[in-house]
Amino acid sequence: MPKAAFNDAFLVDPVPAKAGTSRQERMAFLVDVMLEKLGRWLRILGFRAEDPDDTDDDAILFQAKSRNLILLTMDEELAKRTKKLGIRSLFLPAKMTDITDQIAFVVKKSRISIRNWKSRTLCTKCGGPLDVVSSKSVSDQLPPRVLKRFKDVWRCKSCGHVYWMGSHWKKIGETITKVKSKIRSKVRKSRKAVTRKSK
Prior knowledge:
3-stranded antiparallel beta sheet, 7 helices, single chain, 42% helix, 5-stranded mixed beta sheet, alpha/beta
């Protein structure tokens, strides 16, 4: 990833503290139309990430403001408008197209943790919580091979979509491993830079 990628972005306004909630729990995002794939990955990591209800900029800003969401956008002008309206936002440069770079960027800039993400995964379609259910109870939604192989699967409490630990699960794990590696690399570079300045 280009070295300047992290420096080109900005976080508008800190996340306000709320009694009884952790920073992790307060993190809820709104992705613009260019970042809907990133939104799905944030839901995999256990974070609320809404897709826009409308593609109009004013509608997106209203959605972020009214629901207290952090807007993730590649539109610099839209990100600048959030500052005037008191909306939290994170601008991702257009050159940052790799999904692992995008995830690492949001995790680092938002100071959120992706440890134990497997226990927090949300429905990638609607963001609803997942319940473990017997495969037999949702047999009409499963291919025969899945029904035969898995005793339990996950079902979204909100939309009813069903998930199972197929071959894609390994690919998801590999992607998250890459993300963690990029975050560690960036942290090491930052520490080295601080050490050089202090000498």
